[in-house]
Amino acid sequence: MEQTALNSVLRIALVGDHSDTVLAHQAIPLAIDDAAAVLDIVVQYDWLNTPAITSADDLADYDAIWVVPGSPYKNAEGAFTAIRYARENSIPFLGTCGGFQHAIIEYARNVMGWVDAAHAETDSSGRMVIDALACSLVEKTDAIELRSNTLVHRAYGRDVIQEGYHCNYGIAPAFARELEHQPLRVTGWDEEGDIRVVELTTHPFFVATLFQHERNALEGHPAPLVQAFLHAAAQ
């Protein structure tokens, strides 16, 4: 993809079922606008509710894709379509919370061959690659250790960060062991060693976090990963 020309508009697809009551959804426009101002680029973002995504053609006009919090989605297949399209076409991708969870399932199904990979919140059968957390992370803040020389580490510029969550589900421990030799690499974890960030090393920018880093914008703080995401999209 050629570098975005001066004064051209960068188009971002925000995939998820928009709700004014979801704090992350309130934060995302602020985080994007702040990052765009820092980078001195023009960004247009469109909310794409999951039922509106029926094929990859619905995403063809976008420079980057962000699968946002708010699961269970009304149409999980719409989220999976967006994730797969970004992954297979080297489109910059960001997933947070529900986006993280669905990125894990999409990868398990379509790359690792786990066609029955499932989410414990919505599925009653299959292999639960996303399962209930031992302790809820709803409105919790915790420390995350970052792997050096990774996209997320370069974005933050430090080894340990503090970020907030709003979730009850994460990667099942049995599946976490299956990722040890995958290109979908674990690049951030909490103090107990549980996975909190993954990156696809075969992709220019494919990052998913269980925490909701965008919510920093609600307090007037920058969201470094959003800036890194937009920078990747502008290349």
Low-confidence stretches: 1-7
Largest sheet: 9 strands, mixed
Strand order of the largest sheet: 2-1-3-4-12-11-10-7-8
| Individual helix count | 6
Distance between the termini: 7 Å
Number of strands: 12
| C-alpha Rg (nearest Å) | 16 Å
Overall morphology: globular
Going by helix content, strand content and strand pairing, the class is alpha/beta
What does the average pLDDT come to? 95
Q: In what range is the share of β-strand residues?
A: 25-35%
Estimated helix fraction: 25-40%
Secondary-structure element series: EHEEHEHEEEHEEHEEEH
What would you say this structure looks like, in words?
This protein has helices spanning 23-39, 76-88, 98-110, 151-156, 173-178, 224-233; strands at 9-15, 42-48, 64-67, 93-96, 117-119, 127-132, 140-146, 160-165, 169-171, 184-189, 195-200, 206-209. The chain is of the alpha/beta class and 235 residues long. The protein is globular and about 45 Å long. The model is unreliable at 1-7 (pLDDT under 50).
